[in-house]
Amino acid sequence: xxxxxxxxxxxxxxxxxxxxxxxxxxxxxxxxNATMKCFPEEILNLSLKPFSLxxxxxxxxxxxxxxxxxxINKLLERGYILFYYSCDELIDFKQLEVLDTYLNSALAxxxxxxxxxxxxxxxxxxxYRALKLLVDSGKLRNDVVTVLGSASLQLLAExxxxxxxxxxxxxxxxxxRSFSKYVEILSxxxxxxxxxxxxxxxxI
Length: 204
Hints:
Number of domains: 1
Order of helices and strands: EEHEHEHEHEHEHH
Radius of gyration: 17 Å
Structural class: alpha/beta
Number of helices: 7
CATH topology: Rossmann fold
CATH superfamily: P-loop containing nucleotide triphosphate hydrolases
Shape: globular
Strand content: 15-25%
């Protein structure tokens, strides 16, 4: 069984589910069934080296969530411990206490070096207050945290709430596919490149 804990909304708190190998997320399934698809290369710029606080932003519907879930799928194959949380139904930062709950649970089970994804974090007012508290406490010192947001300017500004506290973290922006990329996909021309996760792991 993979250690991939996904909570999609507040109603799911207390009903944490671990995904097993035969279960596939709907976003990944939709991507696999798409006529035209390509792996979003921007995701490779995220840091996987603890401690890292990464920021991933871009326009709505550009594919940030799907990109992260595809990346998670690859990381799971390599035995990483992952936690994905969608914040789109949260109201304020106090509800992000679920992250502290997860960290305590992971500590009790001796799960170390975790990779954490907080999706649609810009929906949550003052979200950075909850995360900053955890960073300052040292609870995330062995972890990699990636926060996703659709409001690029807002996320860029809120990134500054962590001066000198982002570790090896990167700021990555996802853009719409270029015309040349669509031509490449349609013509089925694929430039040779290393395995995506292997590229990201070079920083470890």
